[in-house]
Amino acid sequence: MKLQSTLVFSNELPPVKKLGEEILLIYDQILAQKSPSFGKWAKGISLKYPVKAGEHLKDIEQFPRHIKAITKLTEQTSVKKLTVVVVGGGSVGDFGGFVASILKRGVRLINIPSTWLAAIDSAHGGKTALNVGGAKNQIGTFYPADQIIMVRTVLMAQPEARAFEGFGELIKISLIEGGKLWSSLAKEKQINSKTLWKYLEAAVHAKYKVVAKDPHEKKGIRHVLNLGHTIGHVLESHYELPHGIAINYGLNFALRFSVQKKVMKPAEASRLFGEPVMGFLLSPLRDDLISVKSSDLAEYRRLLLSDKKKTKAATLRFVFVKKPGKTVIQEVTVDDLLIELCRQREEELHG
Ligand SMILES: NC(=O)c1ccc[n+]([C@@H]2O[C@H](COP(=O)([O-])OP(=O)(O)OC[C@H]3O[C@@H](n4cnc5c(N)ncnc54)[C@H](O)[C@@H]3O)[C@@H](O)[C@H]2O)c1
Ligand SMILES: [Zn+2]
Q1: Average pLDDT score, the chain
Q2: Atom 34 of ligand 1 has which residue's CA nearest to it?
Q3: 198 pLDDT band (50/70/90 cuts)?
């Protein structure tokens, strides 16, 4: 098994012949409608398994039905020659990657992400997953794709609003990486699909730098990739926000918490918050979207503790930012987080 995938950036979908001798295409069925070039390309592949994207696809209860159909479809193929090619967003990638890792005890995998979230984040790092009993990503494998192909026409087929969702993960990885990626993104005055494509390669390389230090998530190094995700996940669940929007809010929270905790110095904070790109960070509290009513706070507490012992003293490893390129992980209690949420709300209301 390869630890690092070969990365390809391309304008068009690759010629089918180049993908492998025998191909099983697992793809998001929406692509056939959204992208005419995809439909034409897929016609050249005989073994196909279209799926409906979403968490339902990752539900373990559904898996026996899928794997029976896929086993039947591939019964004449040889383990040595078969390549599973997955085209879709993160849910299809998690599902298809899992299938490839167990089908005939593991076959070659090529991933072609079709959402910005998948292209920037979920396709990379080798994690596959299924949900169990409604709880996300409870089982899975580490199974890096042999190749990951980022195709401009496939990604550009998404509605423009999705680019703003993808921005959440882009700004996250840029803050973790710092350096040229951050200094260049920081100056952007527009966020759209073109911006995402422009930074995609650098963003993906930045994620690999983190993953390479801890490929099987044994050393805790990959935890920095959770920047913005602690509060982000709570907001995603409670308000049913798209992941990228919730992460955008969560990043703003994490940066301001970093200042409050004195991890980030005031001079660094004014430099950072003065950058043009920071105008695209959402403020949950200013937007009046996030309530700090006691019933909501109780629900945030429950969500924050969902995988912890439900005691007040329970702590979480929170990712702070000292400056772009320098993150700091510190234990915080759930109460610290809730108090900070209320403090940021007061700051928004009264300056
Ligand atoms: N494995 C990992 O490391 C990792 C990391 C982060 C997230 N994830 C997983 O990723 C999933 C979320 O990813 P996602 O947002 O890409 O989800 P998704 O696969 O559900 O796609 C979101 C929506 O976009 C549609 N879509 C896909 N490609 C399109 C295109 N080109 N044009 C128009 N519409 C298109 C889909 O049909 C779907 O409705 C979650 O299940 C999450 O758990 C995995
Ligand atoms: Zn994320």
Answers
A1: 92
A2: 158
A3: very high
Domain positions in the chain are 6-156, 161-350
H helix intervals, 6-132: 30-34, 36-42, 63-73, 90-102, 116-117
Instruction: Write the pLDDT tens digit of every residue in 47-100.
Output: 999 999 999 999 999 999 999 999 999 999 999 999 999 999 999 999 999 999
CATH of span 6-156: 3.40.50.1970
- Cβ proximity of 11 and 151 under 8 Å: yes
- Give the residue whose CA is nearest to atom 5 of ligand 1: 122
Ligand 1 in reach of 74 Cβ (< 6 A): no
126 close to ligand 1 (CB < 6 Angstrom): no
Choosing among 2.40.30.100, 1.10.10.10, 1.20.1090.10, 1.10.1270.20, the CATH entry for 161-350 is 1.20.1090.10
Residue to substitute in 117, 150, 196, 229 for testing ligand 1 pocket (most ligand atoms within 8 angstroms of CB): 117
